């Protein structure tokens, strides 16, 4: 049986929140396009202080909406 991973190991591999640059790279779009999607309400960021982050779940929801509308 595989040993369970420690929480710090899991978080180091897959952060829950991504920067705009990381999110844009994950979606294969530019940062400008990413900020446009945020401004029109297609993506909902999480704000921590002055930082803007996007959750992996939000990116997946966006992709799922694209697939269902096609």
Automatic annotation (TrEMBL):
Instruction: State the superkingdom.
Output: Bacteria
Please report a single Pfam family linked to this protein: HTH_17
Entries under NCBIfam families matching the protein:
excise
Q: Which residues form the Helix-turn-helix domain?
A: 17-65
**Known SUPFAM superfamilies for this protein?**
Putative DNA-binding domain
Q: Name one GO molecular function term.
A: DNA binding
Protein name listed in UniProt: Excisionase family DNA binding protein
Q: Using the record, list the residue span of the signal peptide; answer none if the entry has no such feature.
A: none
């Amino acid at each position: 049986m595989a040993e369970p991973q420690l929480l710090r190991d899991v978080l180091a591999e897959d952060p829950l929140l991504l920067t705009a640059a990381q999110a844009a790279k994950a979606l294969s779009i530019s940062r400008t396009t990413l900020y446009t999607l945020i401004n029109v309400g297609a993506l909902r960021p999480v704000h921590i202080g002055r930082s803007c982050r996007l959750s992996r779940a939000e990116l997946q929801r966006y992709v799922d909406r694209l697939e269902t509308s096609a």
